[in-house]
C-alpha cells in the first residue's frame, strides 16, 4: 500500500511539473514596436502590479473601467497598444490581468483582485481575447458588471437571461475563434449583444504578439484593427 501511495504521489508531482513547464514554455510575447508606442505615449499612463497592467488616461480618468483578460499563453503586455486607443478616446481605465500560469481557466481569483487596483473607477466592464474572453463571460454574470466585451472569443456559460449587454468583435480571417464558432455560441450571449465582424482581421490581430499557430492570414493592417477596436468599444460604452 505504501508503495502505491508513493507512486500515486509521484505521478501527481510529475503532472504538476508538466503543467508548470507547458504553461510557461512558448508564451507569446509582446512585439517591441507596438509596446514601445504605448510606453512612450504621453497621453497614457501605465502602472504595473504583480497581478496586472493598468492603463489610464494621463489627463484624468472617466470613472469607467475595463478588466481585460489575455488569451491563452499570451503575455499581458501584448494587449496594451491595442487597448490604449480607447483609453485616450474614452478616458477608460483598462486593467489587463496577468493570468495564473498564463492560462485564464487556471485563474479563479475574484474580480475584485483587479478592480481594487483602480479604486476611483465605479463602473466596470469585463472583456477578453480568446480563452480570456471565456473567463470574462463568467465574470459578466456578476451583478456589478455593466457589460461584456469579447475580442475573437465566445462564451461557454449561459448569459442569455442575465441583465447585461455585450459587444462581440470577430475577425473574418480568424481560424481559431472562427466566425462560425462565434455564431454557434451566440445564443449564450445576452439579448442585447452587438456583433461586429472585422473584415481581414485574424485571431492574433486583437493583440500584438506576432504570428499564432493555426491562425489565418490577416489582410488588414494592425493599426486599422486598433482603430476599429477603439471606435467600437467607445461606442458600446457610451451607449450604455
From TrEMBL:
Species the sequence originates in? Rhodoglobus aureus
Q: Is Hydrolase included in the keywords of this UniProt record?
A: yes
Family annotation (SUPFAM superfamilies): alpha/beta-Hydrolases (SSF53474)
GO molecular function terms listed in the Swiss-Prot or TrEMBL record: hydrolase activity
| Keywords annotated in UniProt | Hydrolase
Q: Which InterPro entries match?
A: AB_hydrolase_5 (IPR029059), AB_hydrolase_fold (IPR029058)
Q: Where is the Alpha/beta hydrolase fold-5 domain?
A: 66-221
Hydrolase listed as a keyword:
yes
* Source taxon at top rank: Bacteria
Name of the protein described by the UniProt record: Alpha/beta hydrolase
